[in-house]
Amino acid sequence: MANATHRALILSSTNAPASVENVPKPMATPGSAVVRIIVANVLPYARAVYSGNRGAPFPTPLVIGSTAIGRVDSVGPDASSLCPGHLVWVDIMIRARDDPNNSILFGYRTGLTEAGKKLIEGEWRDATYAEFAKVPLENCYILDERRLMSSPTDGGFGYSYDDLSFLSVHFLAYGGLRDLSVQAGETIIVAPATGSFGGAAVRVALALGARVIAAGRNLDKLKKIAEIGDMVEIVQLKGDDVQADALKLKKFGVIDAFLDFSPPEAGNSTHIESCLTALKIKGRAALMGGVRGKVSIPYFLIMFKSLQLRGKFMCEREHVEGLIKLCEQGLLKLGSSANHSILEKYSLEEYEKAFEEAEKAPGYGSQVLLAP
Known about the structure:
Elements lengths: L4 E7 L7 E6 L7 E11 L3 H5 L11 E2 L4 E8 L11 E4 L2 E3 L7 E3 L11 H5 L10 E5 L3 E3 L2 H5 L11 H4 L2 H13 L7 E5 L4 H12 L3 E6 L2 H8 L5 E5 L5 H9 L6 E4 L10 H8 L5 E4 L11 H6 L3 E4 L5 H12 L12 E6 L4 H9 L6 E5 L2
Helix pairs in contact: 5-6, 5-11, 8-9
């Protein structure tokens, strides 16, 4: 229907609350699909982002949003495999088709290039905190609904839509681990391992057959992370002696790789240097955290040990497909079988409560959702 409308959460200014408005329902155009949003993830730092306090630029007004589980409502005329009715995971990493170096995070921030701004200022301005969202075809990943959601007696895992929402936190970790070429039987440090992304990295690394050294400062949270699997070792880092912390890590033998998920406030932490020091010769490390300033690294040690140090932002399409396969094959568990829990599920009108609850979330294994 040409005059159909839907409800969407629109942010008109970072200095004022968002509002739920009735707006025209999006229509599928070439290269796109319209997805009915079932549940959308709420990030722990959503309130900071949309109040302008996290340094994430975006235009206004904007239908804000995050990753989501939804069902395809309609598709553009060039869709070759995606069909109405398909259950999909919606990725927010939108790349320009003519130059994938230009990208945005859908409903969240512009990219690093001027050319990338076109994506969020025009065609892909309105994201998933709405009843419907127009999404690039390539950002809709079909989920095997029978395998994932049917009962175990029928050969499935019995997951709910809420369970499937936990896919989102694991994609970033899978991208980092694959970028590091982590292999079965290797040992990897994940630090800090007690946050949402660090905890997800521990679980994904185990699913890939690696042994994990989960490091951080909060011992109680580390003990909870250790419950994820038998191949998890934990190390409490004190942060006052680089070499002492490195020795704690080294006691578990040869360490092949290090994946970092430092939060913004960890810029002055010594854990990065300790973890790099603990790596074997020709070890690999990737930085995937949110530190915005400079960090100190042991230049001579990196050179002398021929370490590979790289940054990794988000994940690639093949990483998304790979993680979905892990879940569909039962190698990566979700929901109650992984001790995941939904703290609360809110309506669009209750978004402020959702942002507040997500901000207080205890870390990996808990999730807050919006259900339009």
